[in-house]
Specification:
Helix content: over 70%
Order of helices and strands: HHHHHHHHHHHHHHHHHH
Radius of gyration: 21 Å
Structural class: mainly alpha
Number of domains: 1
Number of helices: 18
Strand content: under 5%
CATH class: Mainly Alpha
Length: 410
């Protein structure tokens, strides 16, 4: 009986995967026709075929399968984003990236938290917990958006890099404030900074080392014995980079992003692939990243809890609007304008103000708070779902339009 139940479960999962792939394919075609970034269309598709809609897909948030898909999918998309960056451009804007992915998150969290305190009547500590949960941007959304919307390289690479690097500080802030809210500790700025430095430095080192080793075995003129298996090496190394950093209590997402940067800039380190081999690897990475996007955003859409959102939707929406229209612009101008080396134009900063989608990471943090029964967790989860829907459906779909208006398309 137990074996039969296992087989039925496997068939159900296979059936679900088939539906997601079919829906994802249709979304990809629709995205190509409408030129709307596919993440928004995939999110809507998830809501349509999820439990609140047709009921064709129902994977629980706390299931092992869901966590596996989210962790590996986000990691692979981050690797793809890192591989598309160029060190020459990053050298020009590294100050802005560093400041906006640290102090920018603090500013966003503080302003959003204060708005939640006023509009939702939350205790200030719980309101700050909500702000910290929403503080980071979403690389799983932004990377594919900038794959489809071609804008000035330094703007796209700054926003993508920020989204990869600010996850660590967003998570650290969330759990630091949670300790205060639950009475298990006090906010320690020194400890938070120490955790951030550890997660960042170890994550970057782990990803960088694995990226260099991967380049050696697939592109070294003498030791490229795995050149024919470059796609498999990329899959193994993405998982390896995440797990290596995570086991060292560092940021796994930062590690896979650094891995992608090193492998994507392998020519800087003296490694090159033949044109045919490079195209084969690039085609594999882009196809795999698209499949990961299908699963992540269709699942994210299917798991939106409309019943939970209903009670707080009006004031929650106002909090999200404050985050989008007040907190984000304040963070961008405070962090990017002083960078005299980058010399950001007003139009570039205005565009960065609009590109701060909320997605997988804040959603995962909100889910963890619900599981831990943290004070105010239901309100936090409700506002997080609203932020995911509004930012992805509004900001992602208008990215191309705004870039064109600001003359940033290339």
């Amino acid at each position: 009986m137990e074996a039969a139940a296992t087989v039925e479960t496997a068939k159900h999962v296979l059936h679900t995967f088939g539906i997601i792939l079919l829906a994802g394919l249709a979304c990809g075609l629709l995205s190509a026709k409408t030129r709307i970034p596919d993440v928004a269309i995939l999110l809507i598709a998830g809501m349509v075929i999820g439990p609140a809609g047709a009921g064709l897909v129902n994977i629980q948030v706390d299931s092992t399968l869901n966590q596996l898909l989210l962790i590996f999918g986000s990691s692979y998309i981050l690797f793809d984003g890192g591989a598309s960056l160029r060190l020459k451009i990053l050298k020009e804007v590294w100050i802005t990236i560093t400041v906006i992915s640290t102090f920018g998150v603090v500013i966003t969290a503080a302003v959003t938290g204060y708005a939640a305190h006023l509009l939702l009547g939350l205790p200030i500590a719980v309101a700050l917990l909500l702000g910290a949960t929403l503080g980071s941007t979403d690389p799983a959304t932004l990377v594919p958006v900038f794959r489809q919307v071609k804008i000035r390289e330094r703007v796209a690479q700054t926003v993508m890099s920020e989204s990869a690097f600010n996850d660590a500080i967003g998570a650290i802030m969330t759990f630091t404030v949670l300790g205060m809210v639950m009475g298990s500790g006090e906010i320690s700025i020194g400890r938070a900074i120490g955790d951030l430095l550890w997660q960042s430095i170890i994550g970057i080192i782990a990803g960088g080392v694995l990226g260099y080793l991967a380049a050696v075995v697939i592109a070294h003129e003498k030791y490229d014995f795995l050149v024919e298996y470059a796609p498999i090496v990329s899959l193994m190394a993405v998982a390896g980079a995440y797990l290596t950093a995570d086991n060292m209590q560092a940021s796994g997402f930062m590690a896979v992003f650094a891995f992608g940067i090193v492998l994507g800039n392998k020519d800087v380190f003296g490694f090159t692939l033949e044109p045919g081999e490079a195209k084969q690897l690039d085609d594999f990475v882009q196809t795999t990243a698209f499949i990961m996007r299908m699963f992540i955003f269709i699942l994210l859409g299917s798991q939106v809890d409309f019943a939970l959102m209903q009670q707080y939707w009006l004031h929650g929406l106002l909090v999200v609007l404050v985050m989008m229209l007040v907190a984000r612009p304040l963070a961008v101008f405070a962090c990017a304008w002083p960078d005299r080396r980058a010399r950001w134009s007003y139009r570039e900063m205005l565009f960065m103000c609009w590109t701060r989608e909320t997605g997988v990471i804040p959603g995962a943090l909100a889910g963890m708070l619900l599981g831990m029964k943290a004070p105010g967790a239901e309100v936090i989860a409700s506002v997080t779902f609203i932020a995911i829907l509004v930012t992805i459906l509004v900001q992602a779909t208008t990215t191309r339009w705004l870039a064109k208006k600001l003359d940033l398309l290339v």
